[in-house]
Amino acid sequence: MSESPAKPPAIDWEAVESTKEFKELRRKRRGFVLPMAALFLLWYLLYVLLADYAHDFMAYKLLGNINVGLVLGLLQFVSTFVITGLYVRFANRNLDPVADRIREQIEGTGK
Amino acid sequence: MKDFLAEAAGPASNNPILNICIFAAFVIITLVIVVVVSRRNSTAADFYTAGHSFTGAQNGIAISGDYLSAASFLGIAGAIALNGYDGFLYSIGFLVAWLVALLLVAELMRNTGRYTMADVLSFRMKQRPVRTAAAVSTLAVTFFYLLAQMAGAGGLVALLLGVTSKFGQGIVIAVVGVVMITYVLVGGMRGTTWVQIIKAALLIVGAAVMFVWVLSLFGFNLSALLGTAASKAGEHGEALLSPGKQYGKTGLTQLDFVSLGLALVLGTAGLPHILMRFYTVPNAKEARKSVVWAIWLIGIFYLFTLVLGYGAAALVGPAAIDAAPGKAKTRQRRCSPRRLVDRFCWV
Question: What residue segments make up the domains of chain A, in order of their start?
Answer without folding.
Answer: 13-109
